[in-house]
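Ticket #4471: complex job returned nothing on first submit. Input attached below:
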Amino acid sequence: MAYFPAPLENLIDCFAALPGIGKKSAQRLAFHVLSLPEGRAEAFAAAIMEAKSSVHTCPVCQNLTDGERCAICEDDRRDSTLICVVAEPRDVLSFERAREFGGVYHVLHGVMSPMNRIGPDDLKISELVERIAGGQVREVIMATNPDTEGDTTAMYIWRLLKPFGVKVTRLAYGVPVGANLEYADEATLARALEGRREM
Amino acid sequence: MAYFPAPLENLIDCFAALPGIGKKSAQRLAFHVLSLPEGRAEAFAAAIMEAKSSVHTCPVCQNLTDGERCAICEDDRRDSTLICVVAEPRDVLSFERAREFGGVYHVLHGVMSPMNRIGPDDLKISELVERIAGGQVREVIMATNPDTEGDTTAMYIWRLLKPFGVKVTRLAYGVPVGANLEYADEATLARALEGRREM
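Support reply: We reran it on our side without changes. The output follows.
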């Protein structure tokens, strides 16, 4: 027998189905929603429906947008001959925060991962190849995470793009800015040495 | 400039407004909702609306219910002359799980807390007094948490109920079942000694 009313149990289950939310947290969140003023709870429900219905991928770069194309692809000041390939929409945000990159993006929506049965066809790779085939792109920067899956994905795409003769680069490996060398791992230090540059 | 589309930012803000959810978690949750199949996201939004509109407090015990009165107050087999006073609806669930209590409940929806500016008028205390004034109740068990705020609230209600001549009891303090005495705090041990009973 459930002791909470059914609609409340249902809401708790919805929250508990979200990643990283356990049963106790789900209860706390559901109680919080019940305690919200009427308008705020409605706004929450509406936000879910609105985001779900209006947010889709940009037909050019596959980033999330609610317009026809995303704000970056629409921006004439961005260099569309330079494409930064990232795994997730939030990675675009990280690069934009760094304010260093003037090109455009391509969002793969994941990385290849045999463990999770994610192959090239589950990612937006054919869309990238199509952009390169257009012939207007001079450089593709592979900016997937510097881990096994990110490296594998970058390598796979690099091989695919080879026939087009486009320059493909990978983000530099090295010690992070502000890091303490004492705590840097061996692999990172080895890559930092390998990639050393003249001062 | 927000780099996520506005409806997505809006959904992230909704999640971030929930207790214990930070900005990063809110992003992860919002992305998860976007990735849900259409029906599931709709069901989530509907669950919020449904819980908010159909769940209300039982006019007798103030517990949450979607019926006219709650299932426990409706149950003829429960002893309505014995009232267990708890702070929150989830405390009712804890007692019901213990399967020891055959009486009914009264949910205060909080405890008195000068720090958070919660006074007696913010709680369902007058509703409790009204139930006692009916004259049918023989015992009130104060089952607020064994902390300062819970104790203060229990004491306040005890004083209010005195004129009615009803028996008011407090949950026993002591060492929790299965606990290791080595790690029990002094206050708990002192209360456990004070409340010792003949074997």
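Chain B has a mean pLDDT of 89. Closing as resolved unless it happens again.
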